[in-house]
Amino acid sequence: MKSPQRVVVPIPTRNAALNASNTMKKLDTLRQKLLTGGLNIQPEDLIVRATSGKVRHHYQHPDQPGNHNLRLEYTAEVLVLDYSGPPEALCYLAGQWLSAEQPGHAATAISFRADILDNNHVDLLLTIEGLTDTYHVQVEQDGTRLNNCPAVHIDRRLYPPALTP
User: Fold this and answer.
1) CA distance 73 to 41
2) What does the pLDDT look like over 89-148, one tens digit per residue?
3) What are phi and psi for residue 65, nearest 5 degrees?
4) pLDDT of residue 65
5) Is 126 exposed, middle or buried (0-12, 13-18, 19+ CB in 10 A)?
6) Where residue 20 sits, what CATH number does that domain have?
7) What DSSP string describes 45-98?
8) Residue-range definition of the domain harbouring residue 29
């Protein structure tokens, strides 16, 4: 009987908080962007989560036998509780993050909902659609490695910087 192959997932070391999850790095970078963006958001008032998640995996696809690569497709929800800053500033930071982390995103990828608490505070929910994390799978002798692939806008693949029109 063959022994099962182990899964080797590289764990980022730049920050101990990242050790909890290698698969949702985008959500961690979104959280950090909002906490350090100068809007005075406290960590306990910020909830970031993935919803409507799907795994796209074509292992048994007839055109790609043996393709173990996978993609996580999801929507992010960002809830800022008791927010007293300008909502447009929060949307701007989320848009900056989205452009860096999900090149080629839809222009309407970010939507919002606000619950007015009083004249100065809201609970603000941002919904960010169309997020993906793609993993290239490498089967090796000592196990299987899942490598997170960087998001690249399609224009950068078709027209490398030297060829950009």
Assistant:
1) 27
2) 999 999 999 999 998 899 999 999 999 999 999 999 999 999 998 888 877 788 877 777
3) -65, 140
4) 61
5) buried
6) 3.30.2000
7) GEEEEEEEEEEEE-TT-TTSTT---EEEEEEEEEEEEEE-S-HHHHHHHHHHHH
8) 7-163
